[in-house]
Amino acid sequence: MSGSAAIGTWLPLVITLVTLAGGAFIYHFQKKADRKNEILRERRVLYRQFVSTMAEYNLFCTISRNDEAFFQAVARGEQLKAELLVSAPDSVSDALVAFEEAYTRLPSYCMQNVGEEVKANALKEFGEKLGAILHEMRKDTFEDTKISAEMTVGVFGLPKKIAISWGNK
């Protein structure tokens, strides 16, 4: 058998093996990318649920005074915070831990007869800490964001006339 005949015999086998190895390599990376996208999609849903629940929590605490609805929002918030601690990256979890004190303090200030400045500061702290979480969520979701944590605070802030009405039934 001549050299070119041996190459002709082995060439289809080598091409097949290289194709299979390349396909396996590409499949591995595509599967990894698909899994990463699936996890990110799940986190986006969780992020939206958390933000929506915190908006309800803020409104029930500061405006509506509907105790049953407020406690339902608290229960959902607690569940979502637990899910975030399991599913979110460290940056979001760190911001969530920093948010906890403002989150738990806000209702007591809303429902007690304390000065308006104390209530306003509680709402401001709640908004700032929540803004930091939203910023980290956006960075995780979009890998980069031009929306700063300070810019997101206004989403949860309330006009002074509403803030002054806290504690009034």
Characterise this structure.
The chain is mostly helical. It is built from six helices and no strands. The radius of gyration is 26 Å and the shape is rod-shaped. Residues 158-169 have low confidence and may be disordered. The N and C termini lie far apart (99 Å). Helix content is 86%, strand content 0%.
Q: What is the global morphology? A: rod-shaped
Q: Give start-end ranges of low-pLDDT stretches.
A: 158-169
The chain-level structural class is: mainly alpha
Number of DSSP E strands: 0
Helix content: over 70%
What is the terminal separation in angstroms? 99 Å
Strand share of the residues? Answer: under 5%
Radius of gyration: 26 Å
Mean pLDDT: 79
Total helices: the number is: 6
Keywords: Membrane, Transmembrane, Transmembrane helix
Protein name: LemA protein
